Each structure stands twice: as C-alpha cells, then as structure tokens.
Amino acid sequence: MFGTTVVCLIAALQILVDNCLGLRLTNMTAPALQDPRRDMELHCRFDMGGEELYAVKWYKDDHEFFRYTPAAAVSITQFPVDGVHVDRQNSRCMPEGCDLLLKELSRPQSSGAYRCEVSSEAPAFRLASQTHNVTVAGEIFYMELNHDVALVVVLIFLLLTNGNLVLQTSSELPEA
C-alpha cells in the first residue's frame, strides 16, 4: 500500500515538473559557412513542456521571413526578405520542430543572423529563441595560365570563424 502511494506520488511529481518547465528550444542548426550553389537547411527543435504551440517564426537579421501558426486558417505565411527563398515543397513544420530548405542563395544577401523563435499559446505566452550566424561564401574564378592550359578553377572560401583564407585549386570544373 505504502509503496503504491509513493510510486503514484513520484509519477504525479514527474508530470508536474515536466509541465512546469514549459517551452524549451532544444536545438537549432544552421551552417556557419554555406556554399551559394547548394540549398541551405535550417532546423529548429523544441519541447512544448505541456503547453500548446502558438507559432514558429524564422528571422534573418531581425526580419521575419517565415511563420508557422498551426491553429490559424492559413498555417504558413512567408514574408519577402532579400536573399531568402524558402522551398515550401521541401520544408516542413510540426508540433516538435520546423525544418526549412532555402534555395537560390546569393552572396552577400543570404548571409546573416538566422533566428528560430517559438512561442506558446495563452495563458503562458512563453517565448524561446536561438540564433546562428551564416556566411554564404564561395566564388569561382577562371584564370588562363598559359597557351596550353585553358582554365584553372580556383575556389576561395573565407572562413570567418578563424579568419583563415583557404584556397583550393582544381583543373576540373566543380559540379553545379
């Protein structure tokens, strides 16, 4: 009898603690360095902690470009922001996360601070957010070395994390 009561109390306490913690943004991923020839993936994971999801909003440099509001008549809304083009067919949001695919990246317009912001419904109205800086870099230059060699492709990537300049050379064109 006593053991059953303790187990029930522990289970009730666990449920109470889980629900009292509320909304938590558990993980956001975005590349630090992005090749403009490739699509960019943004991922945001969250735990509602017993609360109801109101919205997931995505920003670039504090300008909202995407909103997922599951209870709204139109659950997905996009806003124009330079350098940001969401591929709606390959993006998906659900109650525990939101994954976006950005296409047609351009340098420097697509570079910036990308933020995922998650909010809960009334009465709590909690907010959780996380930001990652993304640098879209990579240019292709063609140089004629001599009469026998037509082109040499030099890929230049500036890595802002350590301020290093990395040069990669190839005699073949990269795949687009």
Main structural class: mainly beta
- Give the biggest beta sheet: 6 strands, mixed
Quaternary assembly: single chain
What's the CATH architecture name of the largest domain? Answer: Sandwich
**What is the beta-strand fraction?**
over 45%
What is the residue-mean pLDDT, rounded to a whole number? 78
Strand line-up in the sheet with most strands: 2-10-9-4-5-6
Protein name: Ig-like domain-containing protein
Signal peptide: 1-22
Keywords: Signal
Domain Ig-like: 42-135
Describe the overall structure:
The chain folds into two domains: 114 residues, Immunoglobulins (Immunoglobulin-like), CATH 2.60.40.10; 32 residues, no CATH class. Helix content is 11%, strand content 46%. The C terminus is likely disordered. This is Ig-like domain-containing protein. InterPro entries: Ig-like_dom (IPR007110), Ig-like_dom_sf (IPR036179), Ig-like_fold (IPR013783). Keywords: Signal. It comes from Tribolium castaneum.
